Amino acid sequence: xxxxxxxxxxxxxxxxxxxxxxxxxxxxxxxxxxxxxxxxxxxxxxxxxxxxxxxxxxxxxxxxxxxxxxxxxxxxxxxxxxxxxxxxxxxxxxxxxxxxxxxxxxxxxxxxxxxxxxxxxxxxxxxxxxxxxxxxxxxxxxxxxxxxxxxxxxxxxxxxxxxxxxxxxxxxxxxxxxxxxxxxxxxxxxxxxxxxxxxxxxxxxxxxxxxxxxxxxxxxxxxxxxxxxxxxxxxx
Length: 236
Description:
Helix content: 40-55%
Largest sheet: 5 strands, mixed
Low-confidence stretches: none
Radius of gyration: 21 Å
CATH class of the largest domain: Alpha Beta
Strand order of the largest sheet: 2-1-3-4-5
Strand content: 5-15%
Mean pLDDT: 85
Number of strands: 5
CATH topology of the largest domain: Rossmann fold
Shape: globular
Structural class: alpha/beta
CATH architecture of the largest domain: 3-Layer(aba) Sandwich
């Protein structure tokens, strides 16, 4: 049976960056109906290390025909060597596997190994998506810095009611908890960190209590319904 491998690489112990990659890969996999079988995370430079040190050779040697490799963006495969990136991608598709660039939404598959136009256009889009993401990040940081200098809030106010990717899986999560499935295993199934699941569960309890205090809670209400009702009450 084909397996899906998610590959994450960060330059240092930047947990937020790792979380961002994991969240985007998880969202992409969910949209495509894919279940990640194995998460591979490496904390090391992409320009100062070899393919072997970054775990890419080990990953390629694990692959079987039909498997998929999911990466956030093309730079996860390397930073300074185009030849290294080309070699990694070529070896993956020559093994009969696909590589998915979740940031751009592009896929390179075995059928593209002799289609040079598609191969290089796809790589170009993957690189362009990475550069665009960097540009957006720099603009966001600059905007936050300007707001900070003006003594304006730079983050979301505490207690703000927002959607979570876990909301739609509420019933499954509660069922697994009732079956004594460990939280770390549930978090892995949902493609989130265990701490994210803990925060979601705590926030769920808070919102249920808030809904009860407001007199809008009804037995059987799901979290999405509770959030919608509370937003309506606050807006009114």
